[in-house]
Amino acid sequence: MKLGNATLDQLPQGISGPTYDRSVLTPGIVHIGLGNFHRGHQAWYLHRLMQDGLAHDWAIVGAGVRAGDEAQRNRLAAQDYLTTLIELDPAGRSAEVIGSMIDFVPVQEGNAPLIAQMADPAIRIVALTVTEGGYYIDPVTNGFDADHPDIQHDAANPDSPHTAFGAMIAALKQRRDAGTGPFTGLSCDNLQGNGAILRQTVVSLARMSDPALADWIDANCTFPNSMVDCIVPATGPKELDIVRMMGIDDAAPVTHENFRQWVIEDEFCAGRPDWDKVGATFSDNVHAYESMKIRILNGGHQVISNPGEILGVEFISGCMANPLIGPFFRKLATEEITPHVNPVPGMAPADYVDLIDRRFSNPEIVDTVRRVAFDGSSRHTGFLLPTLRDALNAGTPIDGLALAEALWARMCEGTREDGTIIAPNDPIWDSLNSAAKAAKTDPAAWLAQRDLYGDLAENATFVAAFSHWLNLIWSDGTEAALTAYLNG
């Protein structure tokens, strides 16, 4: 059956759909960056509320600021913005159709339709999943990158911005001038203090063209920190085959694991849905949840995906099944990361390592090494280097963390150990590739990337460990280096 409003009463047996009347839903949220993760996570929480007869005035309007987002808009519009969510678990698959999204803003140069939608007083939350590297921050200082060409354009052209943040500012200016009040900016990306970073980006960009507006935004808008968690692979031929086998013609299905977590600060200047009634957690200590997840899960993804790519392992579950990569994750996470992670209610760091081990090992989740290894320049700096700095300051072991950085450098050289080519996989791939090639004979050439490593390039302990591992990888191979670490 072709997925759409007209066929919801024809869903295959065992697949549930919306029990609420979608025709009466009204928008309350604009979500920018409407990919698989949002639909498998935040949109699902809202759908669950709607199933309980709640939050019918909080429906989602999707949005994007890249030309490629229009293709996603067209796919979803053709099926009335419905999505089939498929849970992949070793115990069995299940599926449901969610309907919490009701529209998608046309994607246009200058973002006029997006600005108009966010200026609508009915919109009380603007949420974002624009990737860790999408906030225009310096990876070393975490400060605002005012010199980026996109930022310079938006500062000079505030009424026709390129970025999501410029569009938010233009909409907030209209709301301030009309007296319709602010909205909440809700980051759902894997950044420590993501709400504070979103505030920094929006307010700093606004200050470049309109200081008074920047002050108004800073004083009136809220930007709660949040932690989001669910492994959601990209959709490809395998996922499309799965949904067809279930009897549904869905051009944009989402597969996900049997786990979700959402922890949010309760700071919403214009109201919010009662997400806590369907499993989300409101907490004043989001930082602890963020730190545990970012350092162990997101950092762990980088730990295993880089050697996986070098050795030609295709999927994350395959990395965990590898006799060296899986144990590498456990030893590194247990001995070098957990000492710098605080417990959260109901979960000790060591128990979280066990949980992540099981989740990464799920063979039903076809999560590619290439997807997970993408954008290492943002992910290593955000997920692994903060732990490395803490360990160096505390005098605790760093050998595994240094090995993880050496493996990243080896991967960025652009070839696997079997001689096949690793296609460019980072926004700054050219500079990474150049540094990685130079580091084959001079490991310091990799650490000289000050935009990534800052003063870590001067830390004798780290430099010695990194150089040892990279030299060993190039002389004896990745497996020899992993074996040496595990036996050390």
Automatic annotation (TrEMBL):
Residue ranges constituting the Mannitol dehydrogenase C-terminal domain according to the UniProt record: 285-472
UniProt keyword list: Oxidoreductase
PANTHER family found in the cross-reference section: MANNITOL DEHYDROGENASE 2-RELATED, MANNITOL DEHYDROGENASE DSF1-RELATED
Domain (Mannitol dehydrogenase N-terminal): residue spans on this chain: 28-277
Domain of life assignment: Bacteria
Identification of the protein by name: Mannitol dehydrogenase family protein
Keyword Oxidoreductase: yes
Source organism per UniProt: Aliishimia ponticola
One term of GO molecular function: oxidoreductase activity, acting on the CH-OH group of donors, NAD or NADP as acceptor
Coiled coil: none
Pfam families to which the protein is assigned, alphabetical: Mannitol_dh (PF01232), Mannitol_dh_C (PF08125)
